[in-house]
Amino acid sequence: MRIRYNRETCIGMFQCVNEWDSFEENIDAGKAELAKADEVEDGIFEREVPEDVEFEAKFAARVCPVDAIEVYDDDGEQIV
């Protein structure tokens, strides 16, 4: 499973931070940060999600009020 995070879309509500500890608050920027992620496009970050935290990653995506977080299965299909 893979997670994709659009930092430019983020409005800094930090709800994702409460759901998965790979998201961290960046108060100075007013945005969340996705730890251990690679910037694949300008402002777009991706990383693999370990099996043992898939539920938390999906929930982080679901609670984002601006849909800045997407989750994809191993076949590339968007699941959240």
TrEMBL record:
Keyword NADP tagged: no
InterPro entries (alphabetical): Fe-S_cluster_ET
SUPFAM superfamilies tied to this protein: 4Fe-4S ferredoxins
A molecular function GO annotation: iron-sulfur cluster binding
Metal-binding as UniProt keyword: yes
Keywords, ordered alphabetically: Electron transport, Iron, Iron-sulfur, Metal-binding, Transport
UniProt-recorded name of the protein: Ferredoxin (4Fe-4S)
This protein's encoding gene: fer6
